[in-house]
Amino acid sequence: MISYDRRGYVRSGGEPVRSIATHTADAAALLDALQTPPVVAVGTSIGATIAIDLTLRRPDLVRAVLAHESPWRVTRQPPTVSQIAALRAWAGWRREAGTPTRRLGSSALPIPTVTAAAPGTRSPKSGGKPSARMRGSSR
Questions:
Q1: How do the domains of the chain map onto residue ranges?
Q2: Distances (CA, A) of 46 to 19, 75, 96, 100, 112
Q3: What percent of the chain has pLDDT over 70?
Q4: Mean of the pLDDT values across residues 76-92?
């Protein structure tokens, strides 16, 4: 996992920068310097905007994006041909892969349903009487 602080924010020194393009260039420079394979870019709020912008500007660096509550549209310029191609490729992958919930749901372990408390505990359903039964239990 790689995490960085934007210029002038949190642990980074200097004056804060308000340009998404500058933050995106910084993120790209970091990934280039670390020579990472394509990453899953994760961002919340302005970080989500940077993650999306990074994908548009440098699709070679990003395998997937998790963007949470991006507050601002990604770009004020018309998209380039390579940006449109990157978005089309992502949309095709998205159609094939399905929703994240469906993908996770098919691989997740089932959540056990408790119908009574464990031995020696009080079950609210039994009026506070001790109970040892769980659905699927042989007892």
A1: 20-108, 110-139
A2: 11, 13, 28, 22, 38
A3: 60
A4: 73
Contact 54, 24 (CB under 8 A): yes
- Interacting residues of 130 by C-beta distance below 8 A, sequence separation 6+: 117, 119, 120, 121, 122, 123
- Distance linking the first and last C-alpha atoms of the chain: 45
What is the rounded CA–CA span in Å between residue 75 and residue 16?
A: 20
Contact of 67 with 52, CB cutoff 8 Å: yes
Is residue 68 helix, strand or coil?
A: strand
The span from the CA of 46 to the CA of 18, in Å, is 10
Single pTM value for the model: 0.52
Give the mean pLDDT of the chain: 74
Q: Given this model, what pLDDT does residue 98 score? A: 61
